[in-house]
Task: inverse folding
């Protein structure tokens, strides 16, 4: 579904991605993990069209999308839930969600999307009229994910949903993603939290200093000696 | 000084305020969504006057139709200006956008003034009246029908604009862009399209003002200076980039001027409003409605 080949990208003269290649198939739940500053966020930004690649290619559903503006990539069916969430703070929860379905013009389809998202996050229904800027941290994440789902995307890119959340809320954020995965949404997740992440995804890529250094199924990565040593500590038992 | 005098002053102030609200609302929109400090706002007003004049006098359209044509003309002029200047500038100017865009608007204003002088000459193109007749407001006070209709047009345009921004998907998209450009792109909103549309809308509101007041302010190459300063005055008083506040502010300034005119004498109304502006800038530089402007239509 998504293929990234030898991607190079950066900001100004600073190159941050070096030959990044990865792929995600339909229905898969894939994680991109690694330490802070490894280039995970930049990879998502480049896929979503916020950063222009200097070299390499990104293909979605078999067609090249690198170089396209972000709004066009969004219209092709890729939703990007950023780390900063990028909500419309002075608009109500409902308006934020409706804007998520900006590209859907069919009214009944839009309503269907809204019902689906509100059923997934009943909390948002309670807060429908509240301004996005007044929500709690956990609710803001739900709203951002909910808004991303309103367009009924083929692929969901999620950047560090656990960041800044209390441990209990982290679990519920993951549960929401797992539920989406069960419903057939293809997800590419970026996380620093290696251990927990590998327990919920199908496959993972490990990034360090702008390169993919390891890849494999979750089981393979969990059993990998280097990963255990560097990211998990050898004696940590799975959650 | 009796109650009916106050009432008369109130009516005059509100009539004046309607136009200010229309002009300032458009100006605030341009800043709130596009970060453009538009010093060519008076020229957009004058484009409306010229189009209305030619439509009404040269082509003999009826007044209402002429004003509608002028609104459409200003809308198209806004598209052309945005596509020619700002959309080009946006591609090349990233860091210094606010300053560069401001300078471009000054340039547009100078070019327009001199262009208009070259093409149409330094000649007042006005009409004595669209409709003629008067409307009795109070037993003692009657106002020109033109004035009343211009006011109704302003109010109608403001209400329609408000509904458009709040109720339609595209209006919501404009507000989304003003609040978070990246979020807007990520939900599939085409920023270029929204920017062009926003400029065209701001231009249309200003042009509508110029067209409906043609009998008071004739079309003239330099007639935009005053409306421009006035709109800027309102926008500065309420705080930059706040459309709702600017509409309210338009009425506040209109009332202030009308009362100052009566109590201080002719010519002093500007002094009163400028004193207010200076005091505000000294003691509450963020404007009457505060600094926490988070979007173009919300505070």
Result:
């Amino acid at each position: 579904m998504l293929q990234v080949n030898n991607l190079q990208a950066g900001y100004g003269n600073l190159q941050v991605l070096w030959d990044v290649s990865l792929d995600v198939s339909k229905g898969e739940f894939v994680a991109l993990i690694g330490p802070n500053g490894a280039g995970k966020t930049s990879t998502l930004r480049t896929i979503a069209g916020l950063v222009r690649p200097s070299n390499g290619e990104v293909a979605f559903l078999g067609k090249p999308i690198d170089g396209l503006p972000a709004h066009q990539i969004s219209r092709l069916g890729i939703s990007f839930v950023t780390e900063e969430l990028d909500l419309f703070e002075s608009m109500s929860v409902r308006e934020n969600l409706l804007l998520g379905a900006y590209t859907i013009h069919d009214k009944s389809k839009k309503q269907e999307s809204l019902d689906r998202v509100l059923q997934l996050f009943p909390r948002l229904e309670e807060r429908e009229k509240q301004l996005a800027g007044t929500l709690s941290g956990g609710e803001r994440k739900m709203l951002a994910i909910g808004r991303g789902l309103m367009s009924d995307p083929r692929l969901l890119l999620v950047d560090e949903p656990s960041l800044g959340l209390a441990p209990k809320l982290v679990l519920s954020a993951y549960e929401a993603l797992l539920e989406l995965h069960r419903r057939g949404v293809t997800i590419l997740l970026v996380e620093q939290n290696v251990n927990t992440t590998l327990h919920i995804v199908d496959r993972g890529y490990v990034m360090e200093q702008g390169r993919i250094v390891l890849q494999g199924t979750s089981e393979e990565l969990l059993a990998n000696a280097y990963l255990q040593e560097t990211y998990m500590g050898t004696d940590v038992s799975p959650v | 000084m009796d109650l009916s005098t106050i009432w008369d002053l109130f009516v005059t102030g509100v009539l004046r305020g309607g136009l200010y609200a229309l002009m300032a609302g458009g100006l605030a929109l341009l800043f709130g969504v596009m970060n453009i400090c538009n010093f060519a706002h008076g020229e957009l007003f004058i484009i409306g006057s010229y189009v209305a004049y030619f439509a009404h006098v040269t082509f003999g359209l009826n007044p209402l139709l002429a004003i509608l044509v002028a609104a459409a003309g200003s809308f198209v002029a806004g598209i052309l200006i945005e596509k020619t200047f700002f959309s080009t500038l946006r591609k090349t100017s990233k860091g210094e956008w606010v300053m560069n865009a401001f300078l471009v608007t000054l340039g547009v204003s100078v070019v327009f003034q001199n262009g208009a002088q070259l093409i149409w000459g330094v000649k007042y193109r006005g009409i004595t009246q669209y409709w003629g007749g008067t409307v009795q407001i109070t037993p003692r006070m009657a106002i020109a029908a033109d004035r009343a209709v211009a006011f109704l047009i302003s109010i109608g345009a403001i209400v329609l604009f408000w509904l458009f921004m709040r109720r339609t998907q595209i209006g919501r998209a404009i507000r989304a862009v003003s609040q978070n450009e990246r979020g807007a792109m990520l939900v599939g909103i085409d920023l270029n399209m929204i920017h062009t549309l926003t400029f065209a809308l701001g231009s249309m509101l200003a042009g509508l003002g110029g067209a409906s007041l043609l009998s008071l302010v004739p079309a003239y190459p330099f007639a935009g200076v005053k409306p421009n300063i006035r709109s800027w005055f309102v926008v500065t008083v309420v705080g930059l980039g706040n459309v709702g506040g600017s509409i309210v502010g338009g009425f506040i300034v209109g009332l202030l001027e009308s009362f100052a005119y009566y109590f201080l004498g002719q010519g002093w109304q500007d002094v009163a409003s400028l004193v207010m502006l200076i005091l505000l800038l000294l003691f509450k530089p963020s404007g009457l409605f505060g600094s926490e402007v988070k979007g173009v239509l919300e505070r």
Residues 83-153 of chain A form one domain. Chain A has two domains: 1-77+155-166+185-234, 83-153. Chain A has a mean pLDDT of 92. Chain A has ten helices and ten strands.
